[in-house]
Design brief:
This protein is α+β, with helices and mostly antiparallel strands and about 425 residues long. The protein folds into three domains: about 100 residues, Integrase, DNA-binding domain (Double Stranded RNA Binding Domain, 2-Layer Sandwich), CATH 3.30.160; about 80 residues; about 160 residues, hpI Integrase, Chain A (Orthogonal Bundle). It has a four-stranded antiparallel sheet. A three-stranded antiparallel sheet has the order 5-6-7. The longest helix has 24 residues.
């Protein structure tokens, strides 16, 4: 059925008793082959275009709904003409539309990143990435098509987080890696995060003063019993085993924090430590590359205090029938089959000790500061911390001001014959 389609004709078009019917355009010079108006049994009217793609398959493309705020007859006929010219060039409008609907979204990209790439990263990095995807990437971009995300979208995401430069830069780094993988997987042609300028980050130099260190030691000693008491207060039905488990987990967390302080290790390295990698007799801890930030094995010497701590942990660990630890991990988790997932107890311990503005990672800085005070060189500090680049250790150079001043005074005393002045430590940068 073909007749000239006009506004008057479309308005007068009667709905069928059931289903729908289509009236095709024809009978005039401006007619577009395959262009028509469809009316349903409910009275809805829309414009369509029938065509064959390059494979010869017949398709029907819906241009849009007829109405004063929708498509007019002339507008729809003009659009049909544009589509016919594109089809003649080999395009397939309906196929493109279906492909767009099926195209992966950023939420799909998050899912694949979590499934294919995340298992290759350290546990602490996995935890950080999951948190950023849940709190930043998915809420802001999750519904967008991967191919449609523009450089401006990533730049805005980064700028929206400018109040926290470190977090903004980490989110940008994550987005950049995700879209780099999207390019590799054929989901888009370029990386929209490339070229977004990162915010400057002020390197922290916070480390514990002697009085803070003393209060922290006291808080760590008291925390396990405090955690057990809290578990006991949760209700009369709390089993004795539950209270004992709360005490055990709290003790493990405190010991992991002590290990961070005594060795300068990172949180993730402490939590994933295995007995098989520790030689207590030789005083050596071989950290596998999978657990270190540099992805390389780090052989770290253990001081006497660290060895004593680890021997105490080993002596109190649950044993199997052969007298070996039941768990391969130094700090087993609540289930006993894996290690502690985090050290969330740190905040409570820190507050109990009355220590302000100190992160768990700052214990690593404290370890470095004590090495510097003892006269260790930057290369030695870097070796103990597992740095592979001298520039990484250079951030601790300011710690040598007092030892260097003392050496300068020694030379001055030898030259002038004057008694050596007492060195008064200056206020620590970023410290108390």
């Amino acid at each position: 059925m073909a007749e000239r389609i006009t506004d008057a004709m479309v308005k007068a078009l009667e709905a069928p008793a059931a289903g729908n019917r289509i009236v095709y355009d024809g009978g005039h010079r401006q007619a577009v082959a395959g262009f028509g108006v469809r009316v349903t049994a409910g009275g809805a009217k829309s414009f369509v275009l029938n065509y064959r793609n390059v494979e010869g398959r017949e398709r029907r493309y819906t241009i849009g709904t007829y109405g004063p705020n929708e498509w007019s007859v002339e507008g729809a006929r003009k659009r049909a003409g544009e589509l016919k010219r594109a089809i003649a060039r080999g395009d397939d409008p309906l196929g493109d539309k279906a492909a767009t609907r099926a195209a992966p979204t950023v939420a799909d990209l998050c899912d694949r990143y979590e499934e294919d790439h995340l298992p290759r990263k350290r546990p602490s990095s996995q935890q950080d990435d999951r948190a950023m995807m849940a709190q930043i990437i998915r809420p802001r971009l999750g519904a967008r098509k991967v191919a449609a995300v523009a450089h401006a979208d990533i730049d805005k995401l980064h700028r929206d987080l400018k109040a926290t430069p470190y977090r903004a830069n980490r989110a940008l780094a994550l987005a950049s890696k995700m879209f780099s993988l999207a390019v590799r997987w054929g989901w888009r042609a370029d990386n929209p995060a490339r070229g977004v300028e990162r915010y400057p980050e002020a390197k922290r130099t916070r480390y514990l003063a002697p009085d803070e260190l003393k209060r922290l030691t006291e808080a760590l000693a008291a925390y396990p019993e405090a955690a057990a008491a809290k578990a006991r207060r949760r209700g009369d039905r709390v089993r004795r085993e539950t209270v004992a488990e709360a005490r055990r987990v709290a003790q493990a967390a405190c010991d992991a924090i002590r290990l961070c302080l005594l060795t300068g290790c990172r949180r993730g390295e402490a939590l994933s430590a295995r007995w098989a990698d520790i030689d207590l007799d030789g005083g050596i801890w071989r950290k596998p590359g999978a657990t270190t930030k540099q992805k390389t094995e780090h052989v770290a010497p253990l001081g006497a205090a660290a060895v004593t701590l680890l021997r105490g942990i080993l002596a109190s660990a649950a044993q199997d029938g052969a007298g070996r630890p039941e768990s391969p991990f130094v700090f087993p988790g609540p289930a006993g089959e894996t290690h502690l997932a985090d050290l969330r107890q740190w905040e409570e311990i820190r507050l109990t000790a009355g220590i302000v503005d100190v992160r768990l990672h700052d214990l690593r800085h404290t370890f470095a500061s004590m090495l510097a005070s003892a006269g260790a060189s930057l290369p030695m500090i870097g070796a103990l911390l597992g740095h592979t680049q001298p520039s990484t250790t250079a951030r601790y150079a300011h710690l040598f001001q007092d030892p260097l001043r003392k050496l300068a005074d020694t030379v001055g005393a030898a030259v002038t014959g004057a008694p050596q002045a007492e060195v008064v430590p200056m206020r620590r940068e970023g410290g108390a």
